[in-house]
Amino acid sequence: MAIRILVGVKRAIDYAVKVQVKTDKSGVVTEGVKHSMNPFDEIAVEEAIRLKEKKVAQEVIALSCGPAQCQETLRTALALGADRAIHVEVTGKDYEMLQPLAISKLIAAVAKKENVDLVLLGKLAIDDDSNQTGQMVAGLLSWPQAVFASKVDIKDKTAEVMREIDGGSETLRVKLPAVITSDLRLNQPRFANLPSIQKAKKKPMAKMSPKDLGVDIKPHQEYLSYEEPPKRQGGGRVANVDELISKLKEKGLI
Amino acid sequence: MNLIKVRTTSISNILHKLTYRYASSQTLVTDLKAIAGNENVSNSASVREQHGHDESYHAGHEPDVVVFAQSTDHVSKIVKYCASKHIPIIPWGTGTGLEGGVTAPKGGVCLNLSRMDKIISVNPDDFDCTVQAGVTRNALNTFIRDTGLQFPIDPGANASLGGMCATSASGTMAVKYGTMRENVMNLEVVLADGSIIKTSGLKGRSRKTSAGYNLTNLFVGQEGTLGIITEATLKLHATPEAVLAAVAPFKDFQSAVDATVAIMQSGLPVARIEFLDEKMVDACNRFSKLSLDVLPTLFLEFHGSNNNIEMQGQLAEETCKSFECLKFDYATEPNKRADLWKARHNLFYAALALKQGSKVSLRDHKNEISTILLSDMLTFSYREKSGSVSPSEGYITDVCVPISALPRMIYLTNKELKRLELLGMIAGHVGDGNFHVVLVVDPKNVEEMERVHEFSMILAKESLDLHGTVTGEHGIGLGKKQLLIDEFGLQGINTMKVIKEALDPLNILNPGKVIDMNKSF
Predict the structure, then answer these.
(1) ipTM surpassing 0.90
(2) Distance from B485 to chain A by nearest Cα, in Å?
(3) CATH architecture label of A3-251
(4) Can you give the pLDDT at residue B519?
């Protein structure tokens, strides 16, 4: 029986952009800055599409939480091969303060509502680097999780997942339904092409609110300030090893 | 990959270090800092060394100072300053050129444009984009990846688009999408007096025009000798819906070329036709651990749509088989396609990986495989002179002829390689009649380099005889000026000199490249 997959996609600042901190330290500059699908989510989408091409999956649903611009990201997921999209609309201050726990609750609610067999997410988003959502979704649903996947094989409602860990890799076998998050080496995502982009415009996109899903998205953390890392200082040259040692001692390093 | 480079210090470089050609380097630095900002000017030894060479075998010649321009305005002011003091100025993109175009044999100011890296606009509905000169081709393709469009000119390096305009670059898909000449719509150029022009109209983005002189294509390929390109408006192309990759080994080169011509004439949407000779295939087998048949081989790629790509693969197979290809492996799925093309992707590194003392297996004309020592292919005197293994480097030739002339060129190439006892492998964009001989050389071996030079000249002259050109993709730079004269004749070169004289009367724009003006500097 072919499975049904829910893929989460986040609209984040494009990885090639030089991020700037706002002068009042309240956040980073997002106005007029190029945004695109979080690269790890591109990998998750690619994996879902490949499972569909292998006929392991019969349907891929793309999900994104955020303001109207998220629909562009969802259209990209549709152009890459997803069958339909769900946009959970969160705007303004609510969106600024939208945190992994709230997102996890939203994803879990949609996963239950759509009765999917697999939730595929990027292991982290490159704007906040949290690496929490996949794990929390699994916790909320009481589903098994296999995160940092670099290889996924699915057969008979069981997934065998090779994961990247410190010092090497580990292979897990999890029963579906489960949550898997993608790591860099899982696959090389395809680029969208024009015919698919045209077709994607006609694929269904549903819109709903956190209230429709019965989820309270109130934040539990407050962001105090954003700062750039300290500017790199110039190095210095030392004449010999003795001077090196005394300099290191001076700096309290040895 | 480790390309260990050894640069010989030319006499002129030594002399230059001893003489102060300009008021003083320090004044130059101070004045340029006043224009471009303190952090954007450097005359430190390592920065100047880096900017004095590209990826060719040409010895480096350092500029006096390097300026990192942040805007067209910077460029204009710097050029005005250099013009007022008669100081040479050399534009620099990524330093990945292959003909010594960025060397500074007369010193001067190296103008690094890599920090002008903004993508100014992308217009998906119009299939065009405008970028600053320092944007690299990979950066552009990454930026437009979700528009379904691509910029399909892919020279080996991740070059800057400004540099690609300046050298009229080309790539593996020229057979379908053309070269820079066909894909540059408009340029912003700073001229030798600092004035700024747009070559196809102040705001021009139309797909075609009959308005005035074709200035755009005057500046495509001028290698920084007529003006400094600061912005480019480029054509974009649709990313294909379906791609089919194929590999077909042939019994000999003639069959491969005949198959190529037939495919070009078949109307199949061929996007890439690449050729590797048997020595190159063997090197690739070793390097990438493959087991391709060691034969002249075509690597093909077709771009089409889902509903007809399979049929195109079958047609291509029939065509190749009618020229007796040994087999025809093809795939549409991305991973399998990458596997098929692995040899072609890694060929430069594979060539360099061949070292002294390693063995090469070749299928000779009797179709028997013999194994010979690489060192036997190199000159005996070299082995005697230097007993140790030196790091090897790749020297790449670049001629382009009408397709029907290819078999004759390849025959001559192999003949000369044998006569001059050089180790070289052939890889080419046969769909364009363009091929490269990758020579594995020791740049410190002066005698070997002389034979390499002789080989290169013979190849270029034969190419001209056969109605070809001395450089398909890499440019004239430092080393091919005489060949350019051979290719165009004195009247042709004179026309170029007239244009150069008109646009750069002081000869400060990248002097010594492409053509030699008779002014002594």
Answers:
(1) no
(2) 44
(3) 3-Layer(aba) Sandwich (3.40)
(4) 52
